[in-house]
């Protein structure tokens, strides 16, 4: 069939010669297959997986002698021998030729019975570790399934987040029989070169493809020689096998399906605003997602705890305020192998705080920022902070009475109410009886009045504290203030619990509104939720009223028991002196 087999044939002849005289095959012993071949393999037409383990090649028998790539196998059941010549094309692909099963007499000349035109079988490793694909998209391509070239509309190949996958979008051409629109995901598993041909083995994922017979495909490809004459030159020619073998694939222009790949016109690129890319990493308030900017500020990568990454390329600036502090952009996203366009808005809220809105994904770039896909007024905000965010002065200072405090169940994303353990959320000690009439699950085992005060900017400018009259010192829960901004009379303040050992870097959004009687507060853990009404809904909801300035002595005289002692001491000493005077 091709060059290597002729050389193998010559080696067989030589081997036969050697066998005749020395009988080097030790057919009585046990031999082992290379350890790296161990595992289960798929072969077209063989229903069960083929297992290679130690000396065994499952269905064919036990290895009793080997020399180079030739293995003599004893079929235990039928008590017969066969010669199998195995070539490792790639760690994930073995190809072999074999003889029929023969009785012992033929042993010395067994391997010589394999002729040059014997069938070549391919085995593909099951559960193979994928490899990077040899061509990187995006491409446009035309294809031919034997009824003519499907050129219009042109088909396309997109890259996926993983470099071992490509997404092939076939278009149907009205004038070409057998062309149909389909989206196939190709996972690359093996590459090798044979003569001047390059081979690729991959697995195809498609909604209609369910069996390994339909999934494994072999490809021959060649990089076209660059030609300076045409404006958009052909980059690759690719031929695909019609079944789960590499049979009948001789060149990149003959196959069950052939494709001609051209590089796709590059996406327009814009860049994200300078202040976003200033810190190349941003985090969601709970630190579960990371937003990082790359490639000359034109690419954004979103990573979260689910491990599903999203790559976003800035395509077009739609709107921008003069200083770029609020921008609306058309972007192109890739998530797994999905891709398309999505409209995004970024708002600078404070030096280290921004908010983002992301619309609905669409295939058409023109649609992305339409109100059907991007409704600014209804899309929730994602609040993001820089990792290096510094503490800032809190928005006001003083001592406040907490007039009421409610801890609500948190609404999860799925809309399911979730019980918040007071031990793990804002306030640490679970306890006995509620200190406030409406407080749930707070400090029930403490015999005191609960939270006495809310103290802002007093011990230093940057902290807000809940203090109690109780002696337990760890009940003081303090927060650092970070960025803040105001919208229509409602203020948003980013805070972080000072107890980093428990909370790590996570932040909270305090949403508040000043009223005549004081300030109404609500907190929101995931983002600065616009649906929260301060003092009414939210996770931790509390109202405060002013009690005085930080160093107001009257207020502290009432609060501190030490003053009572002082008064008692003065009274007592004056009693003593009175007694002394009467003596
Ligand atoms: C990316 O943003 C940083 C920070 O503003 C800036 O220094 C850099 O020049 C930008 N790079 C490009 C290519 O615009
Ligand atoms: C993680 O990101 C993926 C894709 O960006 C998204 O579908 C998913 O909802 C995110 N999960 C969380 C917990 O944020
Ligand atoms: C602010 O209030 C005005 C008047 O009530 C309203 O028209 C506008 O939409 C509000 N803006 C925001 C961002 O809520
Ligand atoms: C805070 O005050 C507002 C207005 O008086 C009231 O509607 C709300 O219920 C109060 N919040 C709490 C937690 O008591």
TrEMBL record:
Residue ranges of every copy of the DUF7043 domain listed in the record: 268-378
Residue ranges of domain DUF7042 in the record: 130-262
Signal peptide extent: 1-24
InterPro entries reported for this sequence: DUF7042 (IPR055470), DUF7043 (IPR055471), DUF7044 (IPR055472)
Key words, A-Z: Signal
This protein's record includes keyword rRNA-binding: no
Keyword Signal: yes
Gene Ontology annotations of biological process type: autophagosome-lysosome fusion
UniProt domain DUF7044: residue ranges: 30-111
Domain of life: Eukaryota
Record's protein name: Uncharacterized protein
Organism: Phyllotreta striolata
